[in-house]
Amino acid sequence: MKTALTIAGSDSGGGAGIQADLKTFAAHSVYGMSVITAITAQNTVEVRSVQNIDEQIIQDQIEAVFDDLKVDAVKIGMLSSPSIVTTVAETLAKYQPNHIVLDPVMVSKGGHRLLAEDAISALKEELMPLADIITPNIPEAEILTEQKILNELDMKSACISFKKLGVKSVLLKGGHLSTDPNDLFYDGENFYWVKGKRVHTKNTHGTGCTLSSAIAANLAKGNTLLTSVQLAKAYIEVAIEHSLDLGNGHGPTNHFYELYKRAHLMNQ
Ligand SMILES: Nc1ncnc2c1ncn2[C@@H]1O[C@H](COP(=O)(O)OP(=O)(O)O)[C@@H](O)[C@H]1O
Ligand SMILES: Cc1ncc(COP(=O)(O)OP(=O)(O)O)c(N)n1
Description:
Layout: E1 3-11, H1 17-27, E2 31-42, E3 47-52, H2 55-68, E4 73-76, H3 82-95, E5 100-102, H4 120-127, E6 133-134, H5 138-145, H6 152-164, E7 170-172, E8 183-186, E9 191-194, H7 207-220, H8 225-241, H9 257-262
Parallel strand pairs: 1-2, 1-4, 4-5, 5-6
Antiparallel strand pairs: 2-3, 7-8, 8-9
The structure holds adenosine-5'-diphosphate (ADP) and the ligand Cc1ncc(COP(=O)(O)OP(=O)(O)O)c(N)n1.
Adenosine-5'-diphosphate binds next to helix 7 and helix 8.
């Protein structure tokens, strides 16, 4: 069985973070493993508090996985602090995994910081160059490239700035623009629009986590980067279309819709 490892924060509400990543791996028939970087007390409305995990325990988790199990792809999400960024970068550099997908998570939908401001330079310098692909949303890309992104032309220019920062490839997500959610994939040479149709729902908690872990799952299965991005985009669109109206805020996406449909389990 193909395998994937997520290095990310825990979301007690189950819609984002480690929980979303493991559900996504399972939905792709990929064996999921996890390294927890921080615990968030979170639901569909808000993040109430965050407890970072000790750096030594984070290093131990990564080593425990790599020293025993094969890892076909790695997805990185919430890293919280500068020292966690450095620990993850240094420990992964020892193992040189085949595929690294970095979602540069910064702020939750409810506006809670998930990456300290003083961790941004470590993320840029130590981790971004290690990743095969980074998957920023528009606000994250604006901070990382220090430029405004107001339209699809600005998205292209931001991708070129990422290349100058030493990034190998980028999927710049267009979900935060008011147009259709078209994402731009740049492999350092060519641009590919990965187009989507906007689903009008408030239930979009964890969309970024789910998309990046679907890319990792598809890479683990041996797909190219471009195909992995295209398959992941199709997966997230269905997951949003059939999202779950749970909680009082932004409900989670439906990670297992296709599986439930095939098993005739919806609405039971
Ligand atoms: N309402 C929506 N309908 C369809 N696709 C969406 C919608 N919102 C976001 N997406 C897509 O979901 C993925 C995650 O994007 P986004 O929500 O921008 O990330 P993040 O959760 O990191 O802010 C992208 O492929 C984006 O285009
Ligand atoms: C623990 C944890 N990790 C990441 C996020 C952010 O996830 P994202 O997919 O960007 O979803 P929203 O926060 O936009 O709903 C998170 N909230 N918690």
